[in-house]
Structures are given as C-alpha cells and as structure tokens.
Amino acid sequence: MKLIATILCGGVGSRLWPISRALHPKPFIRLKDGQSLLQKAFLRAAQLSGLTEILTVTNRDLFFKTEDEFREVNLSKIPTSFILEPFGRNTAAAIATASHYVTTKHGHDAIMLVLTADHLIDDQGAFQDAISKAIELATAGKLVTLGIKPKSPETGYGYIEADGNNVLRFVEKPPLKEAQEYFTSDQFLWNSGMFCFMADTMQQQLEQHCPDILAATKNCIEQALTTEGLGITQIILDANEFKNVRDNSIDYAVMEKSNRMAVVPCDIGWSDIGSWSGFGKLSEPDAEGNHVQGDALLHTTRNCTIYSNDGLISTVGVDNLIVIKTPDAVLVVDKSREQDVKHIYAELAARDHTSHKLHCTVHCPWGTYTVLEEGKNFKIKRIEVKPGASLSLQMHHHRSEHWIVVSGTAEVTNGEQVFYVKTNESTYIPAMHKHRLTNPGLIKLVMIEVQSGDYLGEDDIVRFKDNYGRCKQEN
C-alpha cells in the first residue's frame, strides 16, 4: 500500500487578522512551542506508517515559505511534492488535481489522506488509530471522513449524523438550538474536513457528481509546468487553464451526494482554531480568566484574550475583550463580536491596504526584509539574506538605494561592476542601474537598505535574471 498524505494549505484565516494575512495565512502562525500549524500538520503525517510522500496543494506565492517551513522539520527527508495554484478554487479543485497527480505517479489504488494545514490535534496516538481504521474503509472503496466527537454545542462547525461508520447525512452549521440537540445526541459528529480514500475511488465519484471539475483539473495537470530535484516536485498550474475550474467545496461537489461515504468517529484532541478566543485557549488562563501571550500588564482585567508580538499591551478595567498587537496593526474587539473580524479584513482588502496582505517582515525565497520606517520619498528596511542565496538581477525606475552591511559580506553587482561590501561598509545603487545582491558566505548577511525616490512600491522591480522562477523575461 502506498499512502500519500495530502495537505491542503489555502485560505486566509480572516478571523485571525492581524496575525493571519493573505501572504502569511493561518497555517503559518507560530504557537508557543515555536512550531507553526503547518509544521505540525507535516509532522503529524510524517509519523504515519506506510507513508510514501507528502503532497501539498497551496498558492504558488506561498511555495518558498512552505518549503522553508517543511525544511525545518523534515529531518527524515520524506519526499515532498507541491501542486501550486495561481489562485484559490476551493477544495474540490484542490483534491481533484491531487488525485490526478497521485494516480499518475503512484497508481489508482494509492491511498490519499487529505489533511488540513491549519488545525491542531493533541493526541497523535488516537489520530494514528483513527487513520488506520480510515485506511481499512478506504481500501474497501469508501470515501472516509474523520468525525470529531463534539465537546460543546458549536455553531461554527458542520455536523455529520452517523450510525457507527455509516454516514446518514451532512448538516450545515446549525443555529444554537439545533447544535444543543446534536451535542446531547450520540449520533452527531463535527465534520473535521479530513478525508481518506483510494485515488481511483475519488476519481470515480468526481466523474459521477462533478465531471466538469474532474475534466478541467485533468487538463490543468496535463498543461502544468513540472520540475523535480533534491526530493522535491513542483507542479505549477497555468492560470489561464485553472480559471476554467469551477469553484466548489469537496463537501458540496462530492461528499454530500456520494453513496460511498463512511465516517470514523474519533476523539483526537482536535481544534480548528478559527477565532482569537480559540487561539487564546491554547494557553492557560490566569486567575481572572485572561489568556495572555506576549508582553502584557493587566489591571482589573477579566476574561480577555491578549496577544502581542511587538511591544507591551496594558489594560485597565476591561472585560471580555480581545486585544491583538503586531508591529503595524492593533485589533480591539468584544468577544461577542469576534466573528466580525472578517469584515475588517474584507474592508482592508477592498481598500488594497498593505496590512491585509503583508506583515512588516516579509519572507522571500532568499531570506526576509523588514520595513523599519517609511515616510514621504523614503523607506528603511532591514534585509537578511541566507548563506549562498541571491536576489534577482533587477532595476528600479523610481528609486535609488543605499546599502549598509551590518554583518556578513555582500557580493554586489552594480551596473558592469561586481565587488564585495563587508561589515560596516556601504554602497549606493542609483535608479535605472541593473544590480544584484548575493550572500557568498556561510553566515547570514544582514544589511540596512535606505530607499529614496518619488515611488517606493514593491512593484517597481524589473527582473532580468532570477534563481526562483520569478523573472517574466526568462519564463
């Protein structure tokens, strides 16, 4: 048996803004132990018996970030592959494209285990037991979902009515009265969004219930650009082909219509951390019921969730609030309205406000940059370049740059010249000059960049050569 763990890493986690953003979504949020939700999903899969490969379906803008996350924890060098979408088309498209890839590479009888990238599971042993049962049912031709035994009358989850392993029906997110009835019944489970099936079974069910999605995704896979090397496979889907795939969830497209469904009831310490209250409960409350992460000073404060990754938060005489602080944004919301945080995110996106998309620190294939200060006609960045990494050979129309090396050595291309800049040295890059920054050393290169000009947007970059496939002239 070949077992392919398929991690779906999509969505933006808008209810967890301002930590979760379009280019730093919920799966990349780090918990107190230093690991991200995505890394935990990877490690959860890596411990399964019979695992052949870990396949991740994600947005192509998140590939290098995802690869970095996996590299930190993939000590066993498990083969990894990535299906890179140009934009989201929901879970039916993601699972359909994954099933095409798996049947082609591993055969029709390969078992696919679909996992979410942004959930938390505390009991690995119980999880592995549940997967073993799911594989048995999947081998018999079933589409299997993991059903979570409810811990409360939750209105934010979908439910499954079940009789043993038999699925009787799927239920949408219910109002509170119905959720309370489901909670007291022994026949209802939370729908976890985790599935197990043979690749061929899923293809048959896609053909029966949504043949247009199956056909469109098959065409996408056939037209995709595929690259392989160092144990990593990339399948880059073409945007013009992918836009022909209908947007639909796998639940609506297949699961709720199929007569092949089965469920494995389980108690695995599952949570989807869908809100700030849920995130706060990952830490123990203080004597007043407050959940605090980061630097905080509280006085006569009760039942609050406080989170800061940048500076001190102080509260006086407040109750039932959520207060979140990042370097560029502050969120204050009454707990009774925390689901409405998504409206703030939507409005920021509509305004094309930077804080809906990026943090002050931005992760790139070559390292990171952090915006330290910005004003009219100037921007100051802290840049870190990984050993051996290189930025693209590029040019800016509207800005000049001063580079000051703080530690390490920089190899600089400036026009026709190539030279080295060492610690405490600096150089100047005029506008309209082709230039490149490389770290030739074995330690991290840290430098300060001061930009000046009449336009300082990140889109004022013309790339001529690039090691990471971002150069249009080369594609």
From TrEMBL:
UniProt name for this protein: mannose-1-phosphate guanylyltransferase
Reaction(s) this enzyme catalyzes, per UniProt: alpha-D-mannose 1-phosphate + GTP + H(+) = GDP-alpha-D-mannose + diphosphate
Residues covered by the MannoseP isomerase/GMP-like beta-helix domain: 301-348
The keyword Zinc is annotated on this UniProt entry: no
Database matches in InterPro entries: GMPP_N, Man1P_GuaTrfase/Man6P_Isoase, Man6P_isomerase-2_C, ManC/GMP-like_b-helix, Mannose-6P_isomerase_type2, NTP_transferase_dom, Nucleotide-diphossugar_trans, RmlC-like_jellyroll
Pathway(s) the chain acts in: Nucleotide-sugar biosynthesis; GDP-alpha-D-mannose biosynthesis; GDP-alpha-D-mannose from alpha-D-mannose 1-phosphate (GTP route): step 1/1
SUPFAM superfamilies: Nucleotide-diphospho-sugar transferases, RmlC-like cupins
Domain Mannose-6-phosphate isomerase type II C-terminal stretches: 353-466
Pfam entry (one): NTP_transferase
Gene3D superfamilies in the record: Jelly Rolls, Spore Coat Polysaccharide Biosynthesis Protein SpsA, Chain A
Coiled coil: none
GN (gene name): cpsB
Gene Ontology molecular-function annotations: GTP binding; mannose-1-phosphate guanylyltransferase (GTP) activity
Species name: Candidatus Regiella insecticola LSR1
NCBIfam families linked: GMP_PMI (TIGR01479)
GO biological process: GDP-mannose biosynthetic process; polysaccharide biosynthetic process
Residues of the Nucleotidyl transferase domain: 5-284
